[in-house]
């Protein structure tokens, strides 16, 4: 019987999101592919330093420690296969139980998300993230310069999400961008009992919620989620009612009415934060690992 990843939380991640390959990437971006590959070969046995998403991945893999194999992490990279040797070597050196990888030597890798049944794709490549989102997969561009938070919660995975255009569709955001705050609030009051359509990262939240329900008191790692949104009352009601309609419980909800999110993220201490607006991402990256969800009207090409 063939192996299947259908019942797993599958995270596909680029080698640059998992490890600090920024120096090597500068050579790659300069257009000298041969020099890049030569550099990776020279450092084949030199473990790479942890990258932006490394702490999150390490904690997610810890969910497998209880005996059940609930999380699968796959390296999905534009690197060449020999450079992939370094990525796997670095995984072994850092104790990451990652066994699967796809390396495409410059070709866009997002098409492999479908056979992987990916619940999330993290990459530092903006176009790859756009392509993944357009194909219907949860994805975010990691900001390589993000802070890697020293968490006070070694036994808890903390993930924070923006609402509109991330967990929810950008329906309400479009009204805000077109007609302003008053129209936005009026629209949300009128439609408070109508659930918002799915946003690009709803499947990830669903997968995390399933894992929360499966965990028992003895689990080595717990999951805590937060909604961190610029919405405020009375527009908050539709967001909460949408989660209720989805039968998803979120642990914390912050309705900030335009306040800077970074101060609240500093208190929540997430292992990762997802937002669709680059301004919020730039503010948040100083505090914690951050992913830019390139979706919705604010990211229209």
Automatic annotation (TrEMBL):
GO MF annotation list: 5'-nucleotidase activity; magnesium ion binding; nucleotide binding
Source organism, top-level taxon: Bacteria
Classification via Pfam families: 5-nucleotidase (PF06189)
Enzyme Commission number(s) of this protein: 3.1.3.5
GO BP, one annotated term: nucleotide metabolic process
Gene Ontology CC terms, in alphabetical order: cytoplasm
InterPro entries: 5-nucleotidase
Class of this enzyme: hydrolase
Keyword Hydrolase attached: yes
Keywords assigned: Hydrolase
PANTHER family per record: CYTOSOLIC 5'-NUCLEOTIDASE 1 FAMILY MEMBER, CYTOSOLIC 5'-NUCLEOTIDASE 1A
The name this protein goes by in its record: 5'-nucleotidase
Lineage: Bacteria, Pseudomonadati, Pseudomonadota, Betaproteobacteria, Burkholderiales
């Amino acid at each position: 019987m063939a192996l299947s990843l259908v019942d797993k939380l599958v995270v596909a991640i680029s080698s640059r999101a998992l490890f600090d390959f920024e120096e090597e990437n500068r050579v790659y971006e300069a257009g000298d592919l041969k020099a890049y590959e030569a550099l990776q070969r020279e450092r084949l046995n030199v473990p790479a330093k942890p990258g932006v998403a490394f702490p999150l991945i390490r904690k997610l893999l810890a969910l497998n420690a209880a005996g059940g194999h609930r999380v699968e992490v796959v390296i999905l990279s534009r690197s060449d296969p020999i450079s992939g040797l370094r990525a796997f070597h670095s995984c072994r050196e850092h104790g990451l139980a990652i066994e699967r990888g796809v390396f495409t030597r410059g070709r866009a890798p997002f098409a492999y998300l479908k056979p992987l049944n990916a619940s999330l794709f993290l990459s530092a490549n903006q176009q790859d993230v756009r392509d993944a989102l357009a194909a219907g997969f949860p994805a975010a561009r990691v900001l390589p310069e993000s802070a890697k938070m020293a968490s006070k919660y070694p036994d808890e995975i903390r993930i924070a999400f923006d609402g509109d255009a991330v967990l929810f569709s950008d329906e309400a955001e479009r009204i805000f961008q077109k007609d302003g705050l008053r129209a936005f609030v009026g629209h949300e009051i009128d439609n408070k009992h109508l659930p918002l359509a799915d946003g690009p990262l709803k499947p990830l939240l669903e997968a995390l919620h399933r894992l929360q329900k499966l965990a028992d008191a003895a689990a080595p790692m717990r999951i805590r989620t937060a909604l961190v949104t610029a919405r405020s009352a009375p527009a908050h009601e539709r967001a909460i009612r949408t989660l209720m309609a989805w039968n998803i419980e979120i642990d914390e909800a912050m309705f900030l009415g335009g306040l800077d999110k970074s101060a609240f993220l500093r208190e929540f201490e997430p292992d990762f934060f997802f937002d669709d607006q680059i301004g919020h991402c730039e503010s948040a990256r100083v505090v914690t690992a951050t992913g830019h969800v390139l979706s919705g009207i604010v990211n229209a090409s």
